[in-house]
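Escalated from tier 1: biotin holo job.
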Amino acid sequence: ICKMIKYYKETASTQTAVKKLALKNFGEGVVVIAEKQTKGYGRIKRVWNSNAGGLWFSMLLKPVIRPDGSSILSLLFSIALSRILEKKYGISSEIKWPNDILICGKKVAGIIIEMSAEQDIINWVAAGIGVNINNSLPEDLKNISISIKEVLKREIDRTEFIVAFLTEFESLYFNFQSGGFKQFLEEYNSKVAYKDVLVTVDSACNDAITGKNFGIDESGRLIIETKNKIEKIISGTLRRA
Ligand code: BTN
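Tier 2 regenerated the structure:
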């Protein structure tokens, strides 16, 4: 999947950089990596702490799927990250829907998906991934975030990590495009964080919803059983109720 790598010692955000390349008509498979980001950002415009030692990268994709299926891509990235943590480092992780990777309840990686689409056609998708690898975390994040170095008590080779990740993602991505998401549903749901417990989903457009977390359906929607009914949620941010 990786056709070209653009590497920065420091840039504002690999996400901003890859979107610029998308507008210049670069094709699928461009990967932008930075040692440090000065304006790294996450979902809902949150600041993403991007000190040296972490793995900060963005990838340009041009999937042949309907635009409303693009949020599924972030689930695929989560599965790929979670598989690598398990297979290569023996670390078991959970996925906090839609796409935070947790180790021992603390966030080790985050994913952001941005896209440009017209009618029913996706022009491009910019997928940004941040993994806390060897970076030290600021005091105020220490109780909610974790790095792989902290877990394994040793430095991790970031090149090895990204190579393993891109290889894993490539096969997931091609299988998804030919066979849809259903084949990954069971795996994703087996890793869902806060499963069968009361959670609240906050979203920008709707009221918060609280209920029991049943994991996702085959369109990637989160199934929540509230007092009165079953809700299927397309996007939002989940927390323990
Ligand atoms: C989130 O959890 O909200 C998503 C975090 C995404 C962070 C990555 S780091 C590389 C890329 N560049 C950015 O500015 N953001 C993403």
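The longest strand covers residues 106-118.
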